[in-house]
């Protein structure tokens, strides 16, 4: 952190003295053979949209400058109870949907780290932390993890308790976890699930505390989504190589070119942008309108645009967007008897050279809407930069998706001689 923070700018605020005291206490527990949980001693950073009792939560907006909630969010509370060490708060875009912050990509500081979980992804990617809290309302965990060479989990909607996460859109908001390894991400998810459960009424993720044993899938669905059209050739070749290696290992790959059901799903995925933005705009009217009440100049253009969109909507249009999402979920669920999961990229290429734009959402948005689990796996590269492979699963089958993610990691890293 001392070496790289000036270039990466991942942190908003921190308390390293408190972190060292917590680390000493954790070391004593391990020496005594009495760790509190698998995350005891894990260095963790917290996106500055998520409440912490000891550090302010400022959301990259002057309205909340210096604001302290006097409580930990549910996920932060759970990890502290498990002995994790909170290093500090990390940069977010404005209210997780607007202007970007100062964070730079740790692999190339001329490039974006992605958003809105920019600081957490950059801190993990730079080796400053083992795990970072993020959120995802459209693409804000999977995309930055892919850009920054990190693992990530966007769990089934509601399966990780979102209490204390500043709300944006209730049926889209997910708590996200970005980690240095699949083991780190899964351990954090399970400690949260065991200690605080999911967002009620969801009971939380079920599964073993350790990463479930790697399981070779019998069939995976390859998805192009709208993102394929904007994906450069080098990234296409990296993805094609991974799919070929998976197929060579004996996994059936079905896609829109050889399966009618997948073709119909691909057609539907090309049209999700409009209803996804309708869902976000309608559900985010509050709190975004309440922020704008402090003065139009206090919020950025993205928030102004969402409020303008919501002003054109009525309840019937929102209901149509909800119905469109349910249709998408039904089409995905119908493939559960034939396939074990879905393969796509985390983003349309490596991180872009634009700090004002965090990148396309076209690969990450589908599984936000589906609400099932999605893992970012830093197993590919293009242009000498990280390129994330995304493994998506069926709702409430997070443990099963993790076991397939572990198999993909082991298979593809073995193919590449052990290097991501």
Chain-wise SSE layout:
Blueprint (H helix, E strand, L loop, with lengths): L4 H4 L2 E4 L1 H16 L11 E5 L26 H8 L3 E6 L27 H8 L5 E6 L5 H6 L3 E4 L19 E6 L2 H15 L22 E4 L10 H16 L3 E3 L5 H10 L2 H12 L1 H8 L8 H11 L3 H19 L7 E5 L19 H6 L3 E9 L2 E8 L5 H18 L5
Parallel strand pairs: 2-3, 2-4, 7-8, 7-9
Antiparallel strand pairs: 1-3, 4-6, 5-6, 5-10, 9-11, 10-11
Helix pairs in contact: 3-6, 9-11, 9-12, 10-11
Keywords: Transferase
GO molecular function: transferase activity
Pfam family, one: Amidase
Give the CATH class: Alpha Beta
> Biggest β-sheet: count, sense, barrel?
11 strands, mixed
Strand content: 5-15%
Strand line-up of the largest beta sheet: 1-3-2-4-6-5-10-11-9-7-8
Number of strands: 11
- Write down the domain tally: 1
Helical content band = 25-40%
Name of the CATH superfamily: Amidase signature (AS) domain
Entry summary:
The chain is α/β, with parallel strands linked by helices and 420 residues long.
Structural description of this entry:
Strand 2 (43-47), helix 3 (74-81) and strand 3 form a beta-alpha-beta unit. The protein is an alpha/beta fold. It has one domain (1-261, 336-420): Amidase signature (AS) domain (Amidase signature (AS) enzymes), CATH 3.90.1300. The protein has an eleven-stranded mixed beta sheet, with helices on both faces. It has helices spanning 5-8, 16-31, 74-81, 118-125, 142-147, 182-196, 233-248, 260-269, 272-283, 285-292, 301-311, 315-333, 365-370, 398-415, and strands spanning 11-14, 43-47, 85-90, 131-136, 151-154, 174-179, 219-222, 252-254, 341-345, 374-382, 385-392. It is built from 14 helices and eleven strands. It is 37% helix and 14% strand. GO terms for molecular function: transferase activity. Residues 6-398 form the Amidase domain.
């Amino acid at each position: 952190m001392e070496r790289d923070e000036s270039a990466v700018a991942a942190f908003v605020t921190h308390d390293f003295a408190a972190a060292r005291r917590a680390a000493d206490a954790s070391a004593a527990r391990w020496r005594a053979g009495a760790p509190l949980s698998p995350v005891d001693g894990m260095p963790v950073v917290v996106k500055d949209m998520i409440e912490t009792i000891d550090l302010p939560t400022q959301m990259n907006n002057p309205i909340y400058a210096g604001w302290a909630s006097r409580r930990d969010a549910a996920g932060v509370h759970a990890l502290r109870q498990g002995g994790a060490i909170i290093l500090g708060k990390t940069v977010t875009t404005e209210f997780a949907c607007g202007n970007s912050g100062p964070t730079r990509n740790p692999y190339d500081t001329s490039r974006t780290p992605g958003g809105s979980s920019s600081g957490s992804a950059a801190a993990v990617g730079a080796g400053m932390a083992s795990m970072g809290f993020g959120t995802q309302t459209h693409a804000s965990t999977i995309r930055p993890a892919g850009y920054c060479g990190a693992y990530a989990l966007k769990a089934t909607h509601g399966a990780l308790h979102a209490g204390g996460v500043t709300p944006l859109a209730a049926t889209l908001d997910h708590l996200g976890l970005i980690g240095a390894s699949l083991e780190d991400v899964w351990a954090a998810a399970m400690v949260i699930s065991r200690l605080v459960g999911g967002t009620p009424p969801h009971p939380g993720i079920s599964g073993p505390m350790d990463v479930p044993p790697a399981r070779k899938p019998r069939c995976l669905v390859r998805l192009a989504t709208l993102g394929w059209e904007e994906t450069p050739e080098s990234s296409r070749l990296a993805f094609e190589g991974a799919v070929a290696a998976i197929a060579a290992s004996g996994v059936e790959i079905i896609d829109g070119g050889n399966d009618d059901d997948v073709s119909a799903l691909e057609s539907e995925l090309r049209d999700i942008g409009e209803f996804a933005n309708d869902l976000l705009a309608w559900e985010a009217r509050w709190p975004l309108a309440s922020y704008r009440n402090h003065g139009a100049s206090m919020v950025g253009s993205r928030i102004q645009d969402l409020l303008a969109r919501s002003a054109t909507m009525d309840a019937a249009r929102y209901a149509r967007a909800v119905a469109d999402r349910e249709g998408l979920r039904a089409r995905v669920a119908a493939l559960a008897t034939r396939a074990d999961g879905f393969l796509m990229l985390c983003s349309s290429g490596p991180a872009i050279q634009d700090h004002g734009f965090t990148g396309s959402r076209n690969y990450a948005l589908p599984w936000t809407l589906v609400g099932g689990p999605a893992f970012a796996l830093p197993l590919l590269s293009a242009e000498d930069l990280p390129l994330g492979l995304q493994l998506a699963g069926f709702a409430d089958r997070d443990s099963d998706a993790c076991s397939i993610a572990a198999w993909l990691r082991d298979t593809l890293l073995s193919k590449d001689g052990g290097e991501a």
